[in-house]
Structures are given as structure tokens and as C-alpha cells.
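call fold(seq) -> C-alpha cells
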Amino acid sequence: MEDLPTKLLSQATDNIQKLFDITTRIDEKVKSAIEYSVNLEIKMQKFAEVIALLKEANAILDFQHIPSKLENIELTIVQMQNKISHIEKTSEGFKSKWDTAVKFLVQIIWLVVGAWILFKLGLGPPNLP
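ret:
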């Protein structure tokens, strides 16, 4: 029977040793996971810094292109003003043509009205020798 307590004691010791080994491995895995998490946080912070720098550089580049964009807009405005002045000149030409046509039409109407009045009054053309 002395053998049984010794056996139980040795099994308990073995089980305790196995439990200790398992907890040690678990601790190592947890430490490894924590280190990995810390490394990921550091990498994420560096990544965020790089993104911030890229945004800043992009803003600077966009700001540098603003004058050229303004020049393009100014050029477009000048072109539009030229087109508008050309259209105005063209429409002035048509306006003068219409004015001439209306004046001619009014003169013809007056001529017809005058001839009609002379006809109604019975006045004919003068007798020529």
C-alpha cells in the first residue's frame, strides 16, 4: 500500500508539472500576442502618419495648381467675352438691316396711303404738255 500513495504523489507531481508547463506555454503565447498587438499598433500609427503626410503633400500640390486653374478660368472668361462681343456686333448688323427694311416699308405704306388719298379726292396726275 505504500506504493499507492507514492504512485498518487508521483502522478500528482507529474500533473502539476504538466499544468505548470501548459500555463508557461499559455503565458508565452499571451506575451507573444501582446507583443504582436503592440507591433501592429506601432505600424498603424506609422501608417496614419504617412497618410497624414500624403494628405498634406496632396493639399500642397493642389494649392500649387490653383494659379494655373485660375489662368484657365480667366482665359475661358476672355474667350466668352470675345464671343459675346462678336454676337453683339453681328446682331447690330442685323438690327441696322431690319431698321432699313422697316423704314423702306413705312415709306411704301405712306406712298400707297398718299396715292389712295389722291385717288379718293379725284386728283389725278397733272396734265403734261
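The helical segments are 3-121.
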